[in-house]
Inverse folding.
């Protein structure tokens, strides 16, 4: 492939086909397309974005959290004003400056007990994903198993690094350990090396599904048996609708097979871009030298972002200190908000589509135990064209599920997110959605 | 290679040899080693880190800049308080929210006139490097030329992405266009495709060298002739010691062959982690559809960090607004400080090593026109062992130059940085360094 060669003095253009293949990939395009549709129809009610509610956040809180953090350094740790200044101004520790506060919070909120040195503070959970994938995947045969449908931040990062992937179909209770075992075996049979599995055990994006406790234990057993690492992503775990919170895989992990990825985007504020990964695995070098996987990730981080913004870490640090390192309690109002929203969404779907009508139309949806998302099966193609029609003529936006499947699937499913709407908006939005679905179903002959 | 397989129930360890090869690379190790030595000898005077002076920065400035930025949105742009809150709290535009302020500043400071949409705001310049390398390098034969010695942030990022590199030797005036041309031809002869050249035209890290205006023009000519993109990294351009600032390659670029990478780490504050890349190249898709390279980088950024911290962008945005988008003027005190420091460093070297003594010992150094760095040639191996000896017994730290060469070189050269020392520390530091060099030279028989 040759690039367009311009006449001398003319601006040079680049051929898209000469750029990295991920740029032509529908997974990366999907996010941009969604953003663009949302922007083009600003008056549509949107079940599309998984953005958190802004709750009681006020702009002034940023300065307040900064102050809480610096006062913590000065008063509780006895730092001089100069040292505080350097901490905020200067380059700093690659793996972060609030790792200790995060470790304390994980112990309080999740019963995850790890040394602060195992925690790598990252520029959002997305960077954590990138660091982990880069460290663990070395050779072309190294394969990432992903529960399917899968969050596109995971598959997209893997594509950036040209990592081989194998989708593992989710069951109604999320990732299915026996399907994972089958995926491991098929990967090996095809000459691949199953290196790690990416999953969201609680209220997954996009499906909303959650693993049972028994499935969590069985998955850890399989991981041990098959020498598989688990990349556990946990952005929504706090937001329980029914039942009680289940232990994370990391809290159950006795063999250090789980890398636990976390985010403050949903429980604090997305704009700070602070996430983390717990990487307490031991790494043994060729001469027997020992280090933590977190230390290895640090080398990679120095080549991706050098540091996570000290200003952002200070804001999140202040927020953690303000909560006594008990973020779950500090999220009580948010938990109640999302619970009510998901209940409203389910009730409105029930109201517009009672059981008989559901069967007649070929419409159905799942009932997640928590989180931001649920999935609706519809009797028509839920693709980009349908989305545009829905936005333009019915004033309602959603996300096509097919974007979340590797290698096909979900063509007649759509994801609804209720995290950033008010109850009234949900009520009105479902009413518009019902009109859209009914019209489309009629066109499809239902 | 098989991983260590533990007995059931025992924590699992990972073999370093099974992780990505970049983790075993000396380039990535070098940074960590340096940090570790600096930490182990806290009382040594350090010419090692390229960190900026903290100048007149005060912790309270963070809140002040935040306020300036939010007041700008409310008063000048007429935004509601709610909209300002969303801007700071929420996920936002992938390519950043202060791209317009950066474009205005580049026009004022550098005579670089580009549409704000060409500017991608990144988590430090390091992320800009990663995005650009990922977008441009698609196939194994795509080769990155790097001026050698080279900043390890560039070579390290390329290694993370398994990108082939070819070093191009620097001359006394920095990157040498004819050597670049030779490198292009050799790359082609070896079956590679010379895709881009990474350089720091002004006061390079590590050499301190700068390209003449004539060399800049010739390099652009060669880039046009050979269809080569130029990745211009410009962290130190403001900090002129002698003479007047020279135009950046981007300011001279009429064919959009230059991607201009910038950083606020040296001219504002490193802790915010805000950098950018100007990517105004046009990209043409298979069906003839046109986009900006900046738009393509956006897709990649959504898989590396999603957004640059809105909090950090607001701080840097406030600082830019406060300076009237004239950062060069706002850096007048910093420019004077670094100029004085580099002059002091040169004067002290001259004092300890007058010409005769220099010749007798086999010691020499360059005289950069600005920036943070200079390079000393010494008559002994300037390696990690020598550095430890220097720190322990002479109380002075520096950086081995060999870390900056791809494929060997610089074994008897050391880099001195004078950016974060006071004049008194420089005077004392050179005195210690002279004692160290003299002792080592004596041992080497000089």
């Amino acid at each position: 492939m040759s690039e367009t060669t311009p006449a001398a003095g003319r601006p040079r253009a680049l051929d898209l086909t000469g750029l990295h293949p991920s740029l032509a990939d529908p997974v990366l395009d999907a996010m941009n397309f969604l953003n663009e549709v949302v922007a083009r129809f600003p008056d549509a009610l949107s079940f599309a974005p998984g953005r958190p509610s802004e709750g009681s956040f006020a702009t002034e809180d940023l300065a307040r959290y900064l102050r809480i953090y610096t006062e913590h350094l000065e008063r509780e740790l006895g730092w001089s004003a100069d040292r505080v200044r350097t901490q905020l101004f200067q380059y700093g520790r690659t793996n972060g400056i609030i790792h200790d506060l995060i470790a304390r919070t994980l112990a309080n909120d999740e019963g995850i007990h790890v040394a602060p040195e195992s925690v790598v503070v990252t520029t959002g959970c997305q960077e954590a994903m990138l660091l982990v994938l880069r460290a663990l995947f070395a050779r072309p045969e190294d394969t990432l198993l992903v529960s399917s449908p899968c969050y596109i931040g995971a598959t997209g990062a893997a594509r950036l690094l040209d990592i081989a992937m194998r989708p593992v179909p989710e069951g109604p209770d999320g990732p299915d350990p026996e399907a994972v075992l089958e995926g491991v075996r098929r990967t090996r049979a095809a000459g691949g090396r199953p290196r790690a599995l990416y999953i969201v055990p609680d209220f997954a994006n996009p499906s909303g599904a959650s693993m049972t406790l028994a499935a969590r234990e069985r998955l850890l057993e399989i991981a041990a048996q098959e020498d598989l690492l688990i990349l556990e992503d946990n952005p929504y775990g706090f937001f329980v609708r029914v039942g009680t919170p289940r232990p994370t895989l990391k809290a159950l992990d006795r063999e250090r097979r789980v890398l636990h990825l976390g985010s403050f985007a949903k429980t604090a504020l997305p704009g700070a871009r602070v996430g983390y990964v717990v990487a307490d695995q031991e790494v043994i070098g060729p001469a027997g030298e020992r280090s933590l996987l977190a230390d290895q990730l640090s080398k990679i981080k120095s080549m991706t972002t050098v540091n996570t913004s000290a200003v952002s870490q200070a804001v999140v640090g202040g927020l953690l200190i303000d909560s006594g390192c008990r973020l779950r309690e500090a999220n009580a109002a948010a938990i109640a908000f999302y619970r009510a929203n998901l209940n409203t969404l389910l009730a409105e779907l029930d109201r517009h589509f009672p059981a008989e009508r559901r069967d007649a139309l070929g419409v159905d949806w799942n009932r997640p135990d928590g989180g931001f998302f649920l999935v609706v099966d519809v009797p028509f193609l839920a693709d980009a064209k349908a989305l545009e029609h829905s936005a333009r003529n019915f004033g309602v936006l959603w996300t096509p599920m097919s974007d979340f499947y590797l290698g096909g699937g979900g063509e007649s499913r759509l994801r609804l997110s209720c995290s950033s709407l008010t109850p009234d908006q949900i009520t009105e939005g479902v009413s518009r959605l019902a009109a859209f679905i009914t019209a489309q179903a009629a066109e499809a002959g239902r």
Observations:
- Chain B has two domains: 19-48+332-443, 63-329.
- DSSP finds 16 helices and 16 strands in chain B.
